[in-house]
Structure of Free methionine-R-sulfoxide reductase:
Amino acid sequence: MFDISVFNGLSEEEKYENMVIMLEGLISDEKDVITNLSNASALINALIDRINWVGFYIMKNGELVLGPFQGLPACNRIKVGAGVCGTAAKDKKSMRK
């Protein structure tokens, strides 16, 4: 059973530090990327205050495709260079060159 009450009373910095440790424990023995992204988004959503969406887009065939997330429905696909996520992906891609 997952219990987030252990985070009650912690500072934001302590929450983040403990969240990383908890996430490492959740994903360390799991090889499936979708499973790991799902648990990561659920954990972040459970522990971060004032958040309305957390998740992942996966680069496939030159575009961002919606992956595991928590929150309101989101765009299924985003062109690289379009919007906030697409622009971030474009900038990241150009930094690798």
User: Anything to note?
Assistant: Helices lie at 12-27, 33-47, 83-96. The chain has three helices and three strands. The chain has two domains: 1-51, 53-97.
